[in-house]
Amino acid sequence: MKTYYAILELDERASPDDIRRAYRRLVLLTHPDRTTDPTQHRRYLAVNEAYETLGDRGRRLRYDAHLARQRQPLPPVFTLDEVAPKPQSAPTAPRRGFRIPFLQNQDPKHIPLHIRYAAEIQRALPRFRMAAYASLLCVLLVAVDFNRTEILPDETVQETERVSSRTKRGDWYYFRIFTENTSFKVNSTIDLAKGDQVMVEQTPWFGKVKNVTINSGKMQGNTLQISNFDLLWSLAVLVAGSAVLVIFLDVRPDRAFNLGFANSLAAFFMVVYLFFV
């Protein structure tokens, strides 16, 4: 099989500068303006075709991965006796499917670095696609949960905890309020004491508090909007958008890898927000 590297008279570890120099040299030798030989004209077309692939980084990565796959040995062929247990033999555990590792029979020292990167990217893409489906399901669960409301009508303040923080603008603090079944944060101007009665509106699955109505105490009759969850919705939009791109957009493997990584990172932060913020 004559590869694009052979057409350009190059080694597969050639640098981009080597590829450009070889292309210019061969084009000058085979250009139709310089020779009328039909053989040279066909060679000229082949040189251009080879350079269109090897001169572009993304196309070269895909082409190198294609070459590496073609050079792998064929998987072993099993007979029926080898796969199925014989009647007289003891029962055995079912055989797991096997997978030939990428470039398993080649010495890594002799494999160009960009080919190894391409192999790792190809391994990661199916996992990122599965993660994208999972993140879409998570966004759907969040959307359903946050459009429903669970009411806890008779919650009693069990404890108030003062939480302070120091920033460049100075010190500030807030209170975390604990009741029998939930907890929520209020700013320093809200005066809630142990024993006050409150009604809490929260999401049923993730338990994120939306509103609190104070039924007794100094602030009786006030309703507090605890959060409108702007950060959560921003993360949800980012997760859903990147997941759709990962699943449906046909792009170069390196760009698909970047999209998958961004989706997984956004989904991670969304999960952290749901369970720890």
Automatic annotation (TrEMBL):
Keywords tagged on the record: Membrane, Transmembrane, Transmembrane helix
UniProt key word Membrane: yes
Protein's recorded name: J domain-containing protein
Domain of life: Bacteria
Residues annotated as domain J: 3-67
Protein species of origin: Hymenobacter telluris
InterPro entries the UniProt entry points to: DnaJ_C4, DnaJ_domain, J_dom_sf
One matching Pfam family: DnaJ
Transmembrane spans: 231-249, 256-276
